[in-house]
Amino acid sequence: MRLSLYHFDTGVQTIGGNRVVYDVERGAARFGAASVDGPALVWQLDHDEVDAEGALLSRFVQLDPYASWVVRCDRIDFPRGAVVPAHTHPGPAILYVLHGEVEVEADGRASFFGPGGAWFESGPDAVLTRASSHLGASCVRALVLPAEWAGKRPVRFVEGAAAEDAGETVAVLLEHAIALPR
Q: Running DSSP on this structure, what letter comes out for residue 57?
């Protein structure tokens, strides 16, 4: 499986398929076929070749081709100085900064992202996120999750931090079930 993110400044029209389309001006997400006249983000889920045993091979996650999955699009708002402690997710995600600044620590390295910046999270690898101390931040993300995570908050804190300690607000914009091909 490959999860890709595309940014369109002047609009986009999709014809369906495993895509999440986010209308930046309206703050709304749709799955599959959509038309947006202004700035838009499109996450696309592509399937790689299937091996001789029928198992779907993935660069990021080993998927069961008979399982059902959920694609979710969330908006995450961070108050100034908010810290999301080291955490993992049950599936991969790509996040995009709408406004503000965030620092992301993963694999012992820190990266900084401002408006238009994006990063990939594999899911099982721990990530720590901090909003700038002088600006709040807003991000939008698309995640691919096992079906049992539908309707649940897809985060596991590594160091036992309580969810109340995170400081961010997450709004689920879209959750859509998908089945991967056999």
A: P
Residue count (the chain):
182
CA distances from 174 to 26, 32, 66 (A): 14, 11, 23
- Using an 8 Å Cβ cutoff, are 49 and 160 in contact? no
Token digits of residue 39:
């700035």
Q: Set out the domains of the chain in order of their start, with CATH numbers.
A: 2-46 (no CATH), 68-179 (2.60.120.10)
Q: How far is CA 46 from CA 1, 8, 15, 17, 117, in A?
A: 6, 19, 15, 9, 22
pTM for the whole thing? 0.84
Q: What is the pLDDT of residues 87-100, one digit of tens each?
A: 999 999 999 999 99
Instruction: Record the tokens describing residue 63, joined without a space.
Output: 């998927």
108 Cβ contact list (under 8 Å, min separation 6): none
Q: What is the pLDDT of residues 45-55, one digit of tens each?
A: 886 544 433 33
Q: Are 63 and 180 in contact (CB under 8 A)?
A: yes
Q: Contact at 8 Å (CB) between 28 and 173?
A: yes
- Cβ atoms 131, 100 nearer than 8 A: yes
